[in-house]
Amino acid sequence: MSWFKRKTKGITTTTNEKKDTPKGLWYKSPTGKIVDTEELEQNFYVSPEDGYHVRIGSKEYFEILFDENTFKELDADLTSKDPLKFVDTKKYPDRLKAAQDKTQLKDAVRTAVGKSKGKELVIACMDFSFIGGSMGSVVGEKIARAANYSLKNKIPLMVISKSGGARMMEAALSLMQMAKTSVKLAQLADASIPYISLCTDPTTGGTTASFAMLGDINISEPGALIGFAGPRIVRDTTGKELPEGFQTAEFLLEHGFLDFITHRKDLKNRVNLYIDLITNQPIRS
Description:
Low-confidence stretches: 1-7, 15-22
Distance between the termini: 76 Å
Number of helices: 9
Mean pLDDT: 91
Strand order of the largest sheet: 3-4-5-6-7-8-9
Helix content: 25-40%
Order of helices and strands: EEHHEHEEHEHEHEHHEH
Shape: globular
């Protein structure tokens, strides 16, 4: 006979009375490592135990790359229109509004100019939190304008890619951004202005097929997924098992698609070292 008998059925503790850990106090990496969020921030949003690079956005990359987080944002108010009157589960303008309210961003890329280790640098950084970092007309236009700014002022350009590919709500208009951005980068090359491409997790679709792979130097963070179609699509299309680590940054480095992989804490130094070398400047410590 059981010595314990429950007097009431069900759990009677109210939600407000539960002693749950406050949201955001801890972060659990995909490998199961637990890290304090303050420690994570101090470590450039990289899990110190397993080296996992947490997805971050333009706010964090600007903090890492610009001296004292000081910069001038370019074309900050540029927003998408709805020329195709696109509707899926909701109207495109409604989806844009929801994404803007959630992320406090105007679109999936921010562009800015500031000093990095004392010298000017233009950075275009994509935000995956805004409709999966999808490449629409605004993304293409802002990157093209950032390239124009670099061209006019003879300042190196860096693009940080983090994208699921073309934005389906803009259809062919989205795909046109591949050609537009590629032309602008060709103009930078003709003017001998350095262009650095940083591929982060994930960099896929039309982004990979255009500006993300056109850098004078193409670099990545450890473990980033980089490819055109995702692994599942490739596997289903070819009917073959994929090599181990397929489409990871390490796989692409081994096969010559990347120049190097860098830990996020070394990113600022390594980018500036490359710029100094290619522009024949004294090495900055």
